[in-house]
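Quick start: load a record and inspect it. Here is Glutamine--fructose-6-phosphate aminotransferase [isomerizing]:
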Amino acid sequence: VKGNYRHFMQKEIHEQVRSLTETMAGRIDFQHNSILIPTLNIDEVDFDQLKGIKIVACGTAWHAGQVGKYLIEEIAKIPVEVDIASEFRYRDPLVDKNHIILAISQSGETADTLAAMEEGRKKGARVWSIVNAIGSQAMRLTDGYISMQAGPEIGVASTKAFTAPLVDLYLLAVMMADKKGLLSAQERSQYIAEISKVPDLVGTCLDRENQVREIAAKYKDTEHMLYLGRGINMPIAYEGALKLKEISYIHAEAYPAGEMKHGPIALIDEDMPVMAILPHDQWYEKMISQVEQAKARGGKVIVVATDGDTLASSLADDVLWIPEAFWMVNPVVAVLPLQILAYHIAAMRGLDVDQPRNLAKSVTVE
Ligand code: F6R
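Running the structure step on this input writes:
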């Protein structure tokens, strides 16, 4: 049932306050300021011997994994590689019993992801998953799992099953850092306090749907869009572009912003709008100079910017405003206006948002 919503995708976008609350519920023990995920069996891991984590996933889940690399390396200081499952499974990857394979999958039935898990297991690695569909293969065939608790996702374009694993990866990173003895009690409660704000921050973004819809109306007929991001928000550029292309059929590409001068900047003219993910973080200055370069070449620029950023709004043609957040939490917040924008552009183009052409919700063949 779609309730008051036109499409499941819109409903699922709006469910994110609840889904993100759920994915934290029962995991954060506020009394002891600790994180507990019993289904992960984390006590079986010998962190002194652990060489690294290999995240395997496809599509949107792969983008979530890229954010996870930042979080785990930054907070838990464990090396992480992120691989597309269909590549990993055929590469004879260098994995042994001192690695963890961490699969991320909404459906838990994606053939390539399951095969990548199997490949890891054959080589003796511990296999973990972050998975939404309860009882799915990727939940059962593991040494430990985190359930996203996002609830069923019907729209083919993944939304709430993208943000839930971002929160799960953050919790996992904090939990592993804690097991390694890296965090003081104060640091731990600080991390917990920041992630606990996420549902409210997401709620603020949802309240701004009408502003995003107005911007969607301006860009709905564009043929191309270039998404740029850096650092922990680089995967958000990829995710924003994927959302737009899969449901609106607009050609959208994403690049780490620093790559522009190595080729893609040649694409920029008045017919190539640029979407820059520009929250307040350590990459801000670099992103601003990218926006200036795009403007200098006649491009229209839309930015995802933090409330009160007058520099961003003076440079950009349009702004998707997000509330201020801790930098490691920004990806969860910054993706919201991009989901909403893609949704409204596709709906305005009269397309079948929930069932885009050529796509299936669960890719059980390679
Ligand atoms: C895009 C999308 C896909 C899936 C991918 C993996 O919106 O939904 O890219 O993320 O097919 O699916 P799961 O997570 O079920 O393994």
